[in-house]
Amino acid sequence: MMTCPSKHRRYRTRLLPIAGLLLSSALPPAHAALTDNLLTSPTAMSLGNAVTADPPGTDSIHFNPAGLTRITGEVHSQSFGAVSLRAPASFRQGPDFSIGGFRDDPLNGTSTGEMNQRVYIPGVGLPGWRLPAVILPGLGLAYNKEGSPFTFAIGNYISQAMSSDRTKDPDDPGRFSGKVMHLQRLVFAAPAVGYKVSDTLSIGASVPLAHQAFILNTDMRMPNELLGIVGKVQQGWCPQNGGNIVDTFTFGLCGGGEEGRINPFKKAASIDLNMTAHVDPTINLGLLWEPLDWFGLGVVYQGGSKTKVSGQYTFRAEPMLRRFVEGMHSSLLGPIAAGVLGLPQTIPEEQRGNVSATIPFPHRLQLGFKFKPTPRIQFNVDANYANWKSWDALTLEFDQSIKLLEMARLFGVPDSTRLALPRGYKNTLHFGYGLQTKVSEKLTLRFGYEPRKSSIPKDKLDLVAPLPDTKLYSIGANYKINKEMDISVAASYMTGDYFVPANGSCNMNCDKFFNIVYNPYAGLDVTGGIRVRYFGVTITKRF
Least enclosed by CB within 10 Å: which of 68, 226, 292, 483? Predict the structure, then answer.
């Protein structure tokens, strides 16, 4: 039975304000995490990732498994996405800058240099290739037997990624927040099923099986008030050439020689972490309601996980702290002071072993609407919520006491077998908008806009995750080569900037007495931003 146009218009007039009210008032203020959906689907990227109510083909496995019921027969899709990330930052000290009396930070007036990407290959690791962009593949297969309400599918894709490589310039100031930082979640298999409840209602589920990798290689420096004061006392107490006989009977501040002179701006150590989780399952649940040919509603819940990763670590201590500790223990009163403060007797040049951590993968909820006012024009609107508050801290657990961490007991690190890196992220909600227009029977153009407010508060920003508020602009197209094959292309550009004044983020540039883990740019103003360029292609074949 056909619906008359006047009745169509009445339904449309009633539903549009209801949908608008749901999106504008039923949800809290907009926020969004920047790693969500960035590399998953070229089609979704071209529409601002607003596809929950119109999930594209086999990409429904991730975005809304209920959309699989719109597939008939057998469908294969192959995707390729190329992405480049740049995160420039510059550092400047103010007129009253001082770290325990040290006033000339060598990083003052410097900027980070060239930044490349890496890709983690399960079973191989992180190859040493420095790439201006990385190409990431995706695959989807789906099958529906004619007349069956069930559609079965399987796919693989990248669901989360953040990568930076600053190793080209050994003096890059960004090396103190990660010479190499790589976070990657690869869904290597996601079996899925969609079920058509009625002509207008479908449900679906998928079980993404993911490989998680976390790599961090960084130099460390610890510009801190106490270290600066100790360094200044050494300058006045220890002769430039030769020892101080009185010092031998006190605390041994001079016993480490020139190498043991404390300078808060010098490199103190380096750390290398390589951790993975081989199989980490989650679940996606979706619903798709299409009561009218011009209106649709989609809902998807993407389950989270407290991913347990494990691997190896290497700590390397520079001579400065090693010689300083040796000097204290070669004096009369130094060992007593070191014992009171909980300092180690010695610091080895290198410590290796096993490490584990829990990296939360936040659960997400998406609500989307599709509006098609004419047969050739369609608008999509999505609201996306993610539980990024679960990233309160990243705690590393080591298989032995780390002597470098024993040096930090004075600063509130009670257990030298554990290192807690504060994150303080917040739950996020943001909107995405998509427009597609059918130019001809073969060609459809797509446009997207996604303002993404960061899950990282400004007072928690750092160069490990330089993710401020951003805006994502995208374009794309779909071309039907023939009845059995079509191709989709997408290009997008994401940009955002930040300014964090001195003491603005205690994950990066606080210079207070107890802010030692970890503020490598203490007292400096930090200006930076992020630029992400993406190009993707999907080829779909029907059988």
Answer: 483
Phi/psi-derived region of residue 49, left when phi > 0, alpha when psi is between -120 and 50, beta in every other case: left
Q: Is the dihedral of CA 494, 527, 169, 181 positive or negative?
A: negative
**Residue 319: which pLDDT band, with cuts at 50, 70 and 90?**
very high
Distance between CA atoms of residues 459 and 237, nearest Å: 38
- C-alpha to C-alpha distance for 41 and 536, rounded to whole angstroms: 8
C-alpha torsion sign, points 106, 107, 113, 115: positive
> Crossing angle of helices 319-329/334-341, nearest 10°?
120
Give the number of other Cβ atoms within 10 Å of residue 324's Cβ. 25
Alpha-carbon dihedral 36, 40, 45, 51, rounded to 10 degrees: -80
CB atoms inside a 10 Å sphere around CB 514: 15
**Cα distance between residue 337 and residue 251, in whole Å:** 7
40 Ramachandran zone, left/alpha/beta (phi>0; psi -120 to 50): alpha
Residues 304, 159 contacting (CB under 8 angstroms): no
Lookup: tokens for 356: 């584990």
Beta carbons of 527 and 462 less than 8 angstroms apart: no
CB neighbours of 129 closer than 8 A, spacing ≥ 6?
118
Alpha-carbon gap, residue 514 to 51, rounded angstroms: 47
pLDDT tens digits, 429-449: 889 999 999 999 999 999 999
Q: What is the mean pLDDT of the chain?
A: 87
Distance CA 306, CA 282 (A): 10
Q: Which amino acid is at 540?
A: T
Dist. CA 488–CA 301, nearest whole Å:
26
Return the structure tokens found at 442: 């073969």
Cβ atoms within 10 Å, residue 426:
18
**Contact partners, residue 504, CB within 8 Å, separation at least 6:** 458, 459, 526
Q: Environment class of residue 187 by beta-carbon count within 10 Å: exposed (0-12), middle (13-18) or buried (19+)?
A: buried
Residue 142 structure tokens: 């789906």
What is the pTM (predicted TM-score) of this model?
A: 0.84
Provide the CA 203 distance to its chain's centre, in angstroms: 30
Q: Which two tokens stand for residue 372?
A: 């098609």
Cα separation, 456 vs 470, whole angstroms: 12
Find out whether 354 and 399 touch, Cβ atoms under 8 Å.
yes
Of 317, 389, 319, 394, which is closest to residue 355 (Cα–Cα)?
394
**Contact call for residues 470 and 495 (beta carbons, < 8 A):** yes
Q: Name the 3-class secondary structure at 371.
A: strand
Query: Which residues, listed in sequence order, are joined to residue 360 by a DSSP beta bridge?
Result: 306
11 pLDDT band, cuts 50/70/90, is very low
Q: What pLDDT digit, counting tens, does each position of 96-138 carry?
A: 999 999 999 999 999 999 988 888 888 888 887 777 777 888 9
- CA dist list (Å): 476 to 383, 400, 436, 506: 21, 52, 9, 40
